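Lay summary. Proteins are chains of building blocks that fold into shapes, and those shapes determine what they do. In this project we predict the shape from the chain. Here is one chain we studied, written as its sequence of building blocks.
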Amino acid sequence: MATVEESIDVDVPVSAAYDQWTQFEEFPRFMEGVVAVRQIDDSHVRWVVEVAGEQREWDAEIVEQEPYRVIAWRSVDGMRNSGRVEFTPIEDGTRVQVVLEYEPDGAKESVGAALGIDGGQVADDLERFKDLVEGRERPTGAWRGAIRDGDVVDRDPRGT
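And here is the predicted shape, written in a compact code that computers can read:
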């Protein structure tokens, strides 16, 4: 498994950074190579990405979600991957830290992982997220439910 760790500081409160990140269907706006993300239910999303010139799809399960603190997931089919995004309050906003683990598939992905190209892409994605979240008066939406071990244990009290 290859691992990528990147972080960025954004000049918005934790609530704004977290709320925007929960809008999975907005990911193509700032994630290079992401064609679409579709929310299936509270704890499952369908990914469509372009990797090394090929389109790939998979479903992922959100295994942990605690409002304003963390979102973690793992793939349940297709491209093997998992990750975690943590939101930490800092003096002037929020630190967003991303850790991704994935199984490179084929020579192109293995070389990209070995050269650190994937880390560069995640860093660029985080820069675009920063521009997106700082450029808005408020997030495009929010989901504040909680998930533990893949099970929704607390629905979003606002019903969104």
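What the prediction tells us: The longest helix spans residues 117-134.
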